[in-house]
Amino acid sequence: MNHLPLIIKREYLTKVKNKSFIVMTILSPIIMIALFAVVAYLSQLNNNKERTISILDESGQISSIFIDTENTTYNILSNTSLDDAKALVETNEEYGLLHIANNSDLDQIAKSIRFYSEDTPSLTLISNLESRLEKKITDLKLQQGGVDIEKITASRTSIDIAQESYLGEKTSKMDNIVKLAFGGFAGYMLFMFIIIYGNMIMRSVIEEKTSRIIEVIISSVKPIQLMMGKIIGTSLAGITQFVIWIILGTFLITIVSMVFGINFAEMQTPQQEMMQQAVQSAEVQNQMQNLMSAIYNLPIANLVVAFILFFIGGYLLYSSLYAAIGAAVDNETDTQQFMLPILMPLILAVYVGVFTVIEDPHGTVSTVFSFIPFTSPVVMLMRIPFGVPIWQQLIALVLLIGTFMFTVWFAAKIYRVGILMYGKKPSYKELYKWLKY
What is the pLDDT of residues 129-153, one digit of tens each? Predict the structure, then answer.
């Protein structure tokens, strides 16, 4: 009789009814949203802080570049000494004083600029002031040399090389960035899911083994059915937890935004004051159009189907190995010697995807690792956005499924013997012997 559905149901209900599972499912999004809300609230308070900066420009050539913004007011001082300016700023409790000394040599002016304040000033503010001053003094030096600034500005040319295949398919740098972002996200999700829920499967096997419950269960259930039931049941519990996190997280963000008046969409950082000015330029607007076009050009249907198939295949492959490790040992401490051989291919897949696919998605290294079953779930998902023939995807998927079936047989052999072994830390040599039983 096939007991697999019953085992899956039992594993699923055992996991979702576990107190720690329920607590972490509820608390995790609450803690994350709470931390994010606190950071957003503090950032909002910091950004709403109004600053007044006095400018003492003794040269009389530079102060015109300082224009008031929403949160920063520039107070231009004149006909006053540096000491009097310091006293005035300190008395008025202003944010700081920017002093630009007078000198006929612009290079000496640049070297003698000072910012005085009671507390350490914002790094972003200082960087913003430096960039403005550098541009202005550079323009003044060019004008002193008899150079027409307007002609230089008009002569600047932006190059954006158009990319097109021999078949007329057009792409761009933005397309590559979007494709890499999707591939990286898919690989990262798979990596984290395997680490989190693979360990959950391993701990579940160890707990049942040490509690001797397994001795009762194994008398009426085949080891391979028990192992697959644990893998599938735990996976469904993980998916349930993930869905609850998304729903609860969305709900909490809405509540926090309404109650505390925090607008996450409009939340600004100090760096965004400069970015807002840049976004208004035609070049940045053109980049935004390229971004939308790149997202539109993605093979969405292929990506979704491939993501589901490779995600499931890769997770089942590694989960069976985690279950075998859980059956071979008596406690989590003894798992360390077996974890590295499992994690190494997964880590290698991430490194190959990040450092190889980005440079040459169709090169030999990328292609080979996208066919190796232990690395293909990550590498192939990162290659597909760049255009991988369907036949290559099918071959990689068939190899992945075939390896999974072999791994299940391999893991079931270890599971069958190891599940009833107690009090001894197995070696690789003993695991090899178990395969012959």
Answer: 888 888 888 888 888 777 777 777 7
DSSP states of 331-357: SGGGGHHHHHHHHHHHHHHHHHIIIII
Helices 376-383 and 300-328 meet at what angle, rounded to 10? 170
Say whether both 203 and 142 belong to one domain.
no
Q: For position 211, what pLDDT does the model report?
A: 65
Q: What mean pLDDT is predicted for residues 220-238?
A: 79
Residue range of the domain that includes 56: 50-149
pLDDT of res. 277: 46
Q: DSSP secondary-structure letter at 385?
A: G
Nearest to 297 by CA among 121, 143, 206, 172: 172
Q: Is 54 exposed, middle or buried (0-12, 13-18, 19+ CB in 10 A)?
A: buried
φ, ψ of residue 61 to 5 degrees: the values are -115, -15
Same domain, 221 and 325: yes
Q: Give the C-alpha separation, 311 to 377, whole Å.
A: 6
- One domain, residues 229 and 371: yes
**pTM (predicted TM-score):** 0.66
How confident is residue 399, by pLDDT bands cut at 50, 70 and 90? very high
Contact call for residues 311 and 377 (beta carbons, < 8 A): yes
